[in-house]
Write a structure and sequence with these properties.
The chain has 162 residues and is of the alpha+beta class. Helix content is 30%, strand content 39%. The protein has a single domain (2-161), classed as Pnp Oxidase, Chain A, CATH 2.30.110. The chain contains five helices and eight strands. Strand 5 and strand 6 (78-89) form a beta hairpin. The radius of gyration is 18 Å and the shape is elongated. It starts with a helix and ends with a strand.
Length: 162
Amino acid sequence: MKNEKNIAILKEMAESVRTCMFTTFSSGGEFGSRPMGTAKVEDDGSLWFYTNEYSPKSKEISKENNVLLAYSDPSNNTYLTVKGKAELVDDKVRKEAYFSPFIKAWFPDGIEDPRLILIKVTPEEAEYWDASASKIVVLFSILKAVVTGDTPNLGKHDTIKF
């Protein structure tokens, strides 16, 4: 039951933001980040992305599959990081199901593009911050903390495991 709740939190936050900074790690200890749009968050919590099979990120995932996804929505004061394992998946059914006109900008031949492949990220742990109260409420909490010496209550923060 707890895992279902954790997946629901992950799904809601990732789907509301859609774009994350997708960070891969190289065997030399270097890391690289790039913005990527989330194609789908499945009910089991797995996150799916489209990519070019021959891109540097695909090569990095083939050698080191630990990844970090960072979602940020400053306008709503919500933030989510996801640590997980990535794998390259060539699944025609999912390619068709998750495809959108937005993806066509990078892959003009659609799902028939021979370079098109999916990345599946299986989450292991996520951390989120949700201070989606109005900015006035957040500002009041900060001002109150300054006056009282207490720590401001800026909403929910938790680490969740899968």
